[in-house]
Each structure stands twice: as C-alpha cells, then as structure tokens.
Amino acid sequence: MKSVIFLIFFVLSTFHIFGQGKDSIYLLNDYQVSNDTLTLSINAINANDIISGKFAITVSKFDLSYISSEFPVFTNDAQVAVDTTIRYSWVSPNSKPENLPDFSTLIKVKFKILSSATTFCFVYSQVASAQVEFVSSQLQTLPSRGISGCGNFNYVIAQGFVRRDEDNNCNAQSTFKGIPEMQIRFKNGPIEYFTQSKADGSFYTFLPLATYNVSIYNNDNLWTSCNTTPIINFTSTKQVINVNETAKPNFDCPFLSVNISTPFIRLCSEQIFKINYSNNGSKDALNAYVDITLDDSLQLKSANVPYQPLTGNIFRFILGTIKALEAGQFTVITQSTCDINWLKRTLCASAHIYPDSICNANINFSKAELFITPKCDNGTIVFSVKNIGSGDFQQDLNFATVEDDVMPGFSGKINLKMNESKDFIYPANGHSLRIIFDTIPLNPFQVKASSAIEACGTLPSGGFTTGYLNNFALGDQAPYISTYCSEVKAAYDPNDKIAVLEGSGTAHIIEPNDRIPYLVRFQNTGNDTAFLVSIEDAIDPLLDLSTLQILGASHPFTWTLNADRKLTFRFQNIELPDSTTDQVNSHGYIHFSIKPIKNIPLQSVIPNKADIYFDINPPVSTNTYFHTIGRILYTAVIDHDRDKLKVTISPNPFINHFSIDLNQSINTPYYFELLDLQGRCIQKVKGTGSKLHIQFDHELIKETYLFKIYTDKQIISSGKLIKM
Fold this sequence. Notes:
This protein is mostly beta strands.
C-alpha cells in the first residue's frame, strides 16, 4: 500500500489546475467499481483537429491487475500496450482530422482489484517517451495534459471572457476586447476560488460542484465590474457554464506597469533579466519606452529589442505603441563583475516605463514625485533628491536615514517645488546608508521614496558592511517603476524562496502596509529535460488574497488560487534543460507580491514557503521565509558604558520590546529606567544577573526617549531610543 499512499499525495497536489487555457487538450479520469472489477474511463476535453494522440498512465501494481481495454471513439485504430504502465496511442489511417465532443471517452480499461484499497489513483506519465501528446492536422504538437487523480472527479467547468464594455451598456459582446490580468473570484459561502484572465481576456477553470457568486476586480482600481453574471449554479458533474463578464474603465488614459527580475546574480556570470510590461489602461500608450539603470558592475551584453545607451549605465529600450490592454516581455542579458571583492555586496537593476502618467490619482494629489540619486564622493555620501513630478509639494515631508539597520540616522523635513533639487551630504564611514521619505499625501501607490548606498568609506576595523540594502522597501511601489537588488553570490541554493523586501533585523520587520514581493527560484538539477514544473505556495491567513499581484516569470505559466489558499503556478511544456546540459537556461522563477491583511496586529509573524514539483517527482520544499509586522521602529543608541561592561540591546531596531545583555553578571540588583526629554520617568524595570527583558507598558510614540541602566551606586549605561 505504500505506492498507493504516494500516488494519492501526488495527484492531490496536481489536481489544482484552475486557470488553464481553453487552448489545451485535457484528459480526465473516472472509475466505477463492480464486485472485484474496476473500470477506468479516460475522457477528453477540447480535442479538436487532431490526427494522432498518445498518453501513458500508471497504476499501483499492488492494487490492480490489467484485464482488457475498449476504444469507444477510435475503435479500429487505437492501440494499447501494457507493462507496469498502460500506453495508449492512435493515428488516423488517412490523416483525417477529428473533432471530438467534450468528455468523449478515448479508452475504457478494466482491472481486477487485488487489494482492500477503497481509493485508487491514476498518474499520467510525463517522461519524454510517454508524455501526453496530440498532433494537429498541421502537424503541430497541441498543448495537452492528463489530469491525474484519485476516485471519481465531481468536476465542473467555468469558462468565458472578461471584456471591455465598449458600448457603455454592460452587454457582453464577443467582439469586445478582452481585459487581461483581471481576477475572477468564485465564492461559495466562506469558500473562495480565484483565477485570472489571460492576455485575450479568457479564463478556464475547474471547480467543485456548487453554486457560486462571481465577481471580478483588479488591484489598481482601473475598472469597475458590470456584474454581468453574478451567480452561476452547477446542477450536475461535468457541466460546463459560460461566464462572460464586462467591465467599464474608471479612467480614460494609458496605465503602464513594468517589472524587472532575474533568479540571482552570481559573481562573474551572465544574468538573464526578464522585463515584463503591460498597459492595463483604456487608451493606447504612444511612443512607449523603458529606461533600465544597471549598477556599474553589471555590463549590458545583449537584448532582444532595440536599445540605445544614455548617460552612465542607463539604456533606453524602444517599445513604440503599447495598445490598451496589451502586454509584452523582453530579455536583457548582463555580465556581472569578476572582482572577488564584490562577493556579498548588492547589485541592483531598475526599470522605468514611459509614459508614466498617473490616471487613478485623487484630484487633490499634488503630483509631486521624488527621484533620488546616491553617490559616494570623496569621503562623503551624497543623496541628490529632485522633485521630478508635475506639481509642487503642498507641505513639508519627513525623512530619515538608516545606517545598516542598527544605528539611527539623521532626520529632518524637505519641501521642494517642481524640478527643484537638494543634496543631502553625510560622512562615509563604511556603513550602509539609506534615506527614506514619507509618502507624499494622497499618492495612490503609497510610495516611500528611498535610496541606499554601501561600500562607501571604511569601518574603523577595515572593510565595510554588506547585506542591508534589501531590508527596507526599495521605493518602487508605483507600477511604472521596478527595482531588483540581489546580493552577489558564488554559490546558491538552486530551489529556494526569498523576499526581495527582506525586512529589518533578525525579525525581518516590515510595516503593516508594505507590499511583500516573493521570488521562488528553481533549477533542474536532474539528468533529463523537465517538461512540467509546478509550484505550490500556501498563502498565510495574515496575507490579503485580494492584493495578490503576479509580477513576472522566467517562462510562460498559468496560475490558480484555490479554497485552501493554495497558490499554484504551472509551467506546462517548459522543456527546462538539466544543469549539466545547459547551466544558464536550467533556471527558472516566479515573482509575485501580496500585502498583509488590513489592521494586522503588530508583532504578527508571516511565514511563507513553497513546494516545487518537477514532472512526477516528489516535491522539493524551499526554505521558510518570515516577516514580523511593525509600525514604529525604534533604535537604541548607547551613549555611555561603564568600563569593562559592554551593554548590548537586541533586537535593534525593535517595535515595543527588547533584551539587555550586560555581558557579565553583577552581584547587585540594577534598574532600567525610561525617561522623556524632560526627565520624567515613563517606566522602570528591576533586573538581576546579566540579562533583562524590557516590555513597554504603552506604545512608544515620541521621536526620542532617554534611558539609563544603574545600580544604587553607579550608572552602568545610558543612551537614547530614537524613532525610525
């Protein structure tokens, strides 16, 4: 029975195929049991214009023994071969194309039941010699797959289009243009299923038998649903219902978005950057282009679209007209530095798509926008800040700097008119330095302009700090800007999960409203080509499903989100070469983002991991990445320590608690006292031994507090708590 248990695990994980396109041929199975005989039926969906087909299916030899086969459709021409796997093949004798009605039965296979099992599983092979394959009359291989599973599948199908309401009366006309990247939600009580429309607005999803409320939406508030088909009711299994939805544009303008990503940046190697772009607006974007800025240690080698160099390491990629509701992708290949001194340093690449007009903004939004240029210059760090927007600041804007993620930085206010700029100059001391500005009021994307620099100056001990540039949001919250930063590595985990927003400190602290970009990376380290890669990611309940955004990927894919909050990505027919044969192209990834739920409690911990499936092999589980939610971060700065006592505070920065380590025991009781700037005591805690945990009675809200640690006889340490 061990094999049955394994197959059950596999097929349950692969049955979530919601969102696959109607352009694929699907094979689905049913079985019926009579006495000691089991009859398996394999049914085809969307089997049109075919002249040949083949597939193979495996069952547990411990549970079933093959008896015979029937071919209800291709009686004279079908063949079956049986060993440990049943192999089916059919070729039209006169090359006449066949168009089969949905749910046509290609083969019925009878088995004798050998065991006492109550559930039987059937797994389609994905090996090259026996994978599911159908050929058209044009001698083209059609996208096809077999849906493995256990037991009787009580499946139903919702298919249709999301289209633009072009006559302003909310009628779903087949001639209307489809809207891509619209999320379609099927809700049955508390149970929800999600899928997303493809480039032509179509969707195709499998659902359990039930009645569903249907709704569509997108994350940028660009379209309003006409709610054309509010309820669908499935009354029997294998039923197909057409769902055609329309939506009206909320704004009459182009709305461009861009994403740049790559699996990793290795020392002295090529990087394949994928740049995904789209126009989700209602008007064409004319004379569109993307400016890509590369770190000086990344050399542009080639691209598959025309480009021209600008100043510095900036390149302009000409796209021309991007029609409304259209998307595209291009590839940029770079070469990273071979200088060993760059190990563990961070390299960045950013993309900015134009025109970058904001059409979903509040009418009172000033349209001011900050652009920051960092520079290491003669022992100083210079942040040149310019208002590149089309309006003046309406009020002062707070800013702060963060040194690494431990030491506090400088803070202040700024107020810039349109096209006005200002330089902020700080000493270069070997620590990484980041400047962060508050969100300009009413900015629709809640952008916190930010920039950072590392390896400027030298630490007292020599060298410089690294590994801090991704601790805070990169300031690319607007859809028309995308920044990717990665630590340079010599070795890497081929299958892992990272958060591009790493979070601050060991707790990976982020703010409640921060969007978390995740990157799941995979590599075929086997000894043969992988034809199917699936990624399953269980989304934590503390993350808001309605904010999910799919940013980009290395290869074409489909995705679904089921009622168990399991997010599934499928790279069908990926043909991913193994690493021995083709190291560079053996890698792939998926890049998506999501936000925490509204009113998430402070100190909430959000974990995330993924399982990666290569063909029919057992899953490869990634590491678990986690974040801690904080709103106001404070950093402890020690101004004074008693001789021979080196007090440390951790975590630092912190939210509302930390631990004090005196690094040696003292024989007398001591006290931690928190004071405001007027010297009034806020809280006092008594300690003994070498360690003391401080949990604040009330949330800290002021910019600065004082603290001291003392005995009845002397001051042990003193310092400040500074709001970040």
